[in-house]
Amino acid sequence: MIKFIFWLFIGLLTYSYIGYTIIILFISFIKKFFHSNKKDNKSNTSQFPEVTIVIAAYNEEKNIDEKVKNTLQQDYPQNKITQIWVNDSSSDRTKELLTEYPNIILLNQIERKGKVAAINFAMQYVKTPIVIFSDANAILSADAINKIVKPFSNPNVGCVAGEKRIIMNSIENAAATGEGIYWKYESFIKRIESTCGSALSATGELYAIRTKLFEEVESDTILDDFMISTQVIRKGYLVKYIPDAYACEKASANINEEKKRKIRIAAGSFQALFRSMDLLNPFRHPLFSLQFFSHKILRWFVLPVSLFLLPLLNVLILLLYSQITVYQTIIIIQIFILLMIFSGWLFKDKQISTKWVFLPFYLFMMNISIMQGFIRYVNGKQNVKWDKSIRQT
C-alpha cells in the first residue's frame, strides 16, 4: 500500500508537469492541422473598436504619471480609448494626482473596499463594447491595446488575456529570479492551452472582455481576474492568450514580499476553486475541465502535499522492505534537491547571475505558500483589502 501511494504521487506529479504538457501539445497540433484547411470565422467588427481601460488604484502615487502616459502613448486611436480610474480611498496623493488629468474619468470610493468593489463600481460607467483591465504598476507594451483587441474580431472570443512579464536584470535575487522564470513557464503553458481552444484564465496585469459578458463579482472575491475571465467560459465563449500584448512589472523586493503575495494568491485560488466546481463538469466543458483539473487542481493539492509525503514514504519503504536500488536512487535525488533548496535559501537575498540556483528554493517557497494560503482560506482570514507587496525600485 505504501508503494502504491508513493508511485501514485510520482505519477500525478509526472502527469501534471510532463504528461499534461504532451497532451495539450498534441491537441494543439491537431487543431492547427484542421484549422489550416478552414477559413477563420470572422465578423465585421471595426479594426479599432472603442475600448475602456479600467484601473483600480490604492496608494499608487508613484505609478500614476507613468501609467497614464503609458496609456496615452498606445499605438491606438486615442479618441477611442477611455480611461477610468477608481481611487479606492487612498491615503496618499493618488486622488490629487489623478485630478490633474482631464482626459480620464476619476471615480472615488468613499471607503476602501478592495479591487473587486472598484471594478464593479467602474463597470457601471463603461459604455464601450470592450473593457480592458490593468494594474496601476503594470506598464503595457506600445501596441498592447491594438494586439489585445484583434482577437475579438472572432465572435466566439469573449476574453483576451495578455502576458505578464517580470523586469529582470542580469543579476537578481531569489524573488526576482523565481518569479521571472515561473511566469515564462506559465506563459508557455497558457499559449498552448489557448491554441487548443481556450486558455484557463487571465492575469490582472492585462486582460480584456466583451462588456456585455460582465456580471457583478461577489464583493469578497480575492482573484477578480480568474472569476471575471471564467464568467466568459460559462457563457460559452473562448479565452484567448496573446503573448504579444504584454504588461511589464517589477519583481517583489525580496522573498518575504513575494511570499506574502503568493499566500494571498493561494487563498484566492482555493476560494475560486470552490466557487467554480461547475467548470469541472466534463459534459459541459470537456476540454476546459481537463485543463482546469490538470493545470490548477493537481498543482494546488498534489505538489504541496508531495513535498513532505514523498520523502517520508521513501524512507518508510527503505526501512520496511529490502534495499531496492530504485528507491535508493530516488531518495538520493530528493536529498540533492533539498540541498539545492537550502543553497537557494542561503543566497536568497544575494544578487547573482547564476539564476537557476534560486529555482528549487522558489518552487519550494511557492508550495509552502500554497499550504499557508489554504489554511488562511479555510479560516476565512484573507481580506480583499490587502497590504500590497513592495516591488523593486
- Please provide the count of β strands: 8
- The number of distinct structural domains comes to 1
Write down the overall geometry. Answer: globular
| Percent in strands | 5-15%
Kindly report how far apart the N and C termini lie: 52 Å
Mean pLDDT: 87
Roughly how much helix do the residues carry, as a percent range? 40-55%
Question: What value does the Rg take, in angstroms?
Answer: 22 Å
Order of helical and strand elements: HEHEHEHEEHEHEHEHHHH
Poorly predicted regions are 40-44
Spatial ordering of strands, largest sheet = 3-2-1-4-7-6-8-5
The biggest sheet amounts to: 8 strands, mixed
Count of separate DSSP helical elements: 11
Briefly note the structural class of the backbone.
alpha/beta
Layout of helices and strands, plus pairs?
Layout: H1 2-35, E1 51-57, H2 64-72, E2 81-87, H3 94-98, E3 104-108, H4 115-123, E4 130-135, E5 139-140, H5 144-149, E6 157-167, H6 174-196, E7 206-210, H7 224-234, E8 238-250, H8 255-275, H9 286-320, H10 325-346, H11 359-379
Parallel strand pairs: 1-2, 1-4, 2-3, 6-8
Antiparallel strand pairs: 4-7, 5-8, 6-7
Helix pairs in contact: 1-6, 1-9, 6-8, 6-11, 8-11, 9-10, 9-11, 10-11
